[in-house]
Amino acid sequence: MFLNDSDLQAIWLTVRLAGIVTLILLLIGTPVAWWLARSKAWWKGPVGAVVALPLVLPPSVLGFYLLLAMGPNGLVGQFTQALGLGMLPFTFWGLVLASVFYSLPFMVQPLQTAFEAIGERPLEVAATLRASPLDAFFTVAVPLALPGFLTASILTFAHTVGEFGVVLMIGGNIAGVTRVASVQIYDHVEAMEYLQAHRLSAVMLIFSFLVLLALYAWRPQARKAL
Amino acid sequence: MSGIQARFRLDWSGFVLDVDLDLPARGVTALFGHSGSGKTTLLRCIAGLERPAIGRLTVDGAVWQDDEPKGQRGSGHWLPTHQRPLGYVFQEASLFPHLTVMGNLQYGLKRSPGAARVSLDQAIEMLGIGHLLDRKPAHLSGGERQRVSMARALAVSPRLLLMDEPLAALDLKRKQEILPYLERLHRELDIPVLYVSHSPDEVARLADHIVVMAEGRAVAVGPLTDTLARLDLPIQLGEDAGVVLQGSVAERDERWHLTRVAFDGGSVWVRDGGQRQAQAVRVRILARDVSIALQPVSASSIQNCLSAVVDEIADDLHPALSLVRLKVGNSPITARLTRRSAAALALAPGQPVWAQIKAVALIG
Questions:
Q1: Record: fold of B4-235
Q2: What was the pLDDT predicted at A221?
């Protein structure tokens, strides 16, 4: 077997995490990006900056704050305890929550660019053809921004697959729960299992290359949305 | 109350729109003016694409906006664009690129239930786009795109059609291609149209009424013929100052390829354009092509020499020039002459003269 069971388990966990995070961010990131693309409010700037923070912040810093927030004295922690869900750190769903923050700009920014590129006119046309704003959003803005949605989803998925620091801070290293592929590679190296590390790293390398290839070659127009 | 009552006041930095208009609910009303005069902004206010702070708009008795200044009555009522029964044709065709021509036409149709005043088939036929229905907008010419966008606006059966310089983005050839379709809409449909244009040619061909805009204000409003004959207005029109007269084909001279067009009070010979006997046509006579004589001139190449009466004399923009309005029967004609000529002939209101018309354009 090329990869052992714990490697496969780590890959499956990674794919599940990235898939769920991408879906959640499609739901959260789309309205945020729409608002950022069209709002004229003065606090559009600050909101945009907050959304972009994970791009420049060390993952350990983000992870540290999230750990505090999810902890017993944090806002999120108290909220989840009140709901009877217990604590999020060192659970899969804690990892999901952290990844949603960490990957937010990778969803929002391509979408925002795509929405901005559409401009005001098609939506004005839709309004003169009796489409309500929500109707126009789904029947005009979304179809026209489709390449942007594709780019944003691929980037979000790939970026979540590649995260490491936030995972270590929030999820730790629990097999089958929070031990994703990047952490598994770290474990292999720590344990001097270089062959295993090589194999899993090669899988990650090929995956990342294919994702970027899809982005750059297969859909040249999607690249413009970046 | 029928018709369109529109009162708007909008204050953007560097631009003020301030109008109070009562427009007819039939025929084509041209909003005419130079770029920056506020005509497109006015149209957008009527469509609800802009919301001026102070605005009251009623269309055929229905209140579309009722925002009055503080302290006055005003319900704050506002009908959003998608609830206004209008059609809008933008300067660029602005077709949805992800839909076929048919998809574009059906987009508004699906969303406007109720009695169809214009059927989709009628709109397709009228604009001659039946062979394009399966194509994507990227595979259409500019003229075809604009025709599709007009059909799309008609397919929602609007009670008011707004057109924002639909020909301005097209070259002369495409304009000539589309104008006949516009004239057809005008003749065959009973939908009031507000038509924004800065082209005197288009206005002369299409409009029944005109609103002349300048610096955010309506400087003249009225029926086309009377308004164009106003002597305080040609300044706005410059070299294009002149009148448009509604008439009909009275006689055709096959040998010389000429057509006689009769209007209220007289008739003129024009180049034959293939029109039928008794067909309604318009002729346009520019003030610079009209000269005045006290006696009929017999030996002249000028074919059209009409008996007229001086109605009013006014100064033109340039100090060397005068504008004179003549009455030929009930129809006004304007003439631009030098002040010296006017003085030499001792022109005065009420004086009978002869109007020599060097050129007449047959339009529509």
A1: Rossmann fold (3.40.50)
A2: 53
Closest residue of chain B to A119, computed from CA coordinates? B94
- B296: pLDDT strictly greater than 90: no
The whole-angstrom separation of Cα B281 and Cα B251 is 13
Which residues, including other chains, have CB under 8 Å from residue B180's CB and lie 6 or more apart? none
Structure tokens at B225: 């013929």
- Chain A residue with Cα closest to B109: A129
Integer Cα distance of A143 and A162 in angstroms: 29
Cβ separation of A144 and B94 shorter than 8 Å?
Answer: no
Q: Show the tokens assigned to B131.
A: 């062979």
Q: Is the separation of the CB atoms in B38 and B216 below 8 Å? A: yes
Q: What does each C-alpha distance from B125 to A129, B149, B154, B335, B360 come to in angstroms? A: 20, 14, 12, 42, 33
Mutate which of B43, B79, B83, B98 to disrupt the A interface (most A C-beta within 10 Å)?
B98
User: What's the fold here for domain B240-363?
Assistant: OB fold (Dihydrolipoamide Acetyltransferase, E2P) (2.40.50)
Q: How far is CA A91 from the centre of its chain?
A: 18
Q: Which of A122, A131, A143 sits opposite B94 (nearest CB)?
A: A122
Determine the structural domain holding residue A34 and report its residue range.
Answer: 5-224
Contacts of residue B195, defined as CB under 8 A and 6 or more positions apart, other chains included, come to: B28, B29, B30, B31, B163, B202, B203, B206, B207
Inspect the interface and report whether the beta carbons of A125 and B97 lie closer than 8 Å.
no
Closest Cα to residue B167, out of B202, B206, B204? B202
A194-213 vs A5-38: helix crossing angle, rounded to 10? 30
Q: How many domains is chain A partitioned into structurally?
A: 1
The amino acid that residue A59 corresponds to is P
Of B49, B98, B111, the CB nearest to A129: B111
The answer to whether the CB atoms of B80 and A129 lie below 8 A apart is: no
pLDDT at B151 over 80: yes
Altogether, the residues listed in chain B come to a count of 364
pLDDT digits over B319-349, tens only? 898 999 999 998 999 999 999 999 999 899 9
Q: Which regions of chain B carry the CATH code 2.40.50.100?
A: 240-363
Residue A212 sits in a domain whose CATH number is 1.10.3720.10
Other CB atoms within a 10 A radius of the CB of residue A220 amount to 10
Kindly list the residues from chain B whose CB atom is less than 8 angstroms away from the CB atom of residue A127: 48-49, 80-82
Nearest-Cα distance to chain B for A130, in Å, is: 4
Interval B192-219: pLDDT, tens: 999 999 888 888 888 999 999 989 999 8
Q: Nearest residue on chain A to B88, judged by CA atoms?
A: A128
Convert the pLDDT of each residue in B227-260 to its tens digit.
Answer: 888 887 765 677 778 899 989 999 888 899 999 9
CB B231 within 8 A of CB B323: yes
Distance of alpha carbon B308 from alpha carbon B113, whole angstroms? 55
**CA–CA dist B148, A60 (Å, integer):** 57
Query: Using an 8 Å Cβ cutoff, are A223 and A214 in contact?
Result: no
Q: What is the ipTM of this complex?
A: 0.84
Most distant CA atoms of chain B, gap in Å: 72
